[in-house]
């Protein structure tokens, strides 16, 4: 039996967790803004000061897009929808046959994941977390306030402020890519 010519690692369902994250944009003002979460380690404890992007685990039977929207609304309190962007992907387009070359092509109005983060969990490398990233837009919200999960506080920031406030370098990379897709640059 031949081995694959491509290096790979296989994980059983007990070894991986699939998460879905969302960059939540507010396009309603003069300046476009993005939502960051401020995390406190547990209810009642002081805030750690970490600034994060909304993400969480996908439930069994749930689509990635639905999980991304559910998680961002649970954590921020803001209802939203996936925001279509033009982007390149190696996936065939919606009307193409499966016999297209495996190379990146640009398509308009996609609401697919725009980035994938893989994170090794634990020191032995036998567990992994996959984070599929989506772009979402806040629904118009009336004067009533919204509340998300107790350990998170959601705030909207300008792009520059958000990039400065994010705790993790990897989150900055994700946010920069989302901004470039939304702004068409």
Automatic annotation (TrEMBL):
Record has Hydrolase as a keyword: yes
**PROSITE patterns annotated for this entry?**
NUDIX (PS51462), NUDIX_BOX (PS00893)
Q: Which Pfam families match?
A: NUDIX
Q: Which UniProt keywords apply?
A: Hydrolase
Domain Nudix hydrolase as annotated: residue spans = 15-180
Asked if Hydrolase is a keyword of the record, the answer is yes
Task: Specify the domain of life of the species encoding this protein.
Answer: Eukaryota
List the InterPro entries hit by this protein, alphabetically.
Answer: NUDIX_hydrolase-like_dom_sf, NUDIX_hydrolase_CS, NUDIX_hydrolase_dom, Nudix_hydrolase_domain
Cross-referenced PANTHER family: BIS(5'-NUCLEOSYL)-TETRAPHOSPHATASE [ASYMMETRICAL], DIADENOSINE 5,5-P1,P4-TETRAPHOSPHATE PYROPHOSPHOHYDROLASE MUTT
Q: From the Swiss-Prot or TrEMBL record, give the protein name.
A: Nudix hydrolase domain-containing protein
Which organism is this entry from? Neonectria punicea
Question: From which lineage does this chain's organism come?
Answer: Eukaryota, Fungi, Dikarya, Ascomycota, Pezizomycotina
């Amino acid at each position: 039996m031949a081995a694959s010519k491509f290096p790979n690692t296989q994980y059983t369902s007990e070894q991986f967790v699939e998460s879905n994250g969302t960059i939540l944009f507010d396009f309603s003002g003069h300046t476009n803004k993005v939502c960051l979460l401020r995390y406190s380690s547990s209810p009642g404890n002081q805030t750690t000061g970490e600034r994060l992007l909304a993400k969480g685990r996908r439930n069994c039977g749930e689509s990635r897009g639905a999980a991304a929207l559910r998680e961002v609304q649970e954590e921020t309190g803001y209802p939203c929808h996936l925001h279509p962007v033009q982007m390149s992907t190696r996936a065939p387009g919606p009307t193409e046959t499966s016999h297209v070359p495996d190379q990146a092509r640009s398509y308009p109005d996609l609401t697919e994941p725009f980035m994938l983060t893989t994170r090794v969990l634990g020191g032995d490398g036998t567990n992994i977390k996959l984070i599929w990233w989506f772009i979402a837009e806040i629904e118009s919200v009336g004067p009533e306030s919204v509340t998300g999960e107790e350990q998170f506080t959601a705030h909207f920031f300008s792009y520059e402020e958000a990039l400065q406030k994010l705790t993790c370098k990897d989150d900055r990379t994700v946010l920069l890519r989302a901004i470039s897709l939304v702004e068409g640059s």
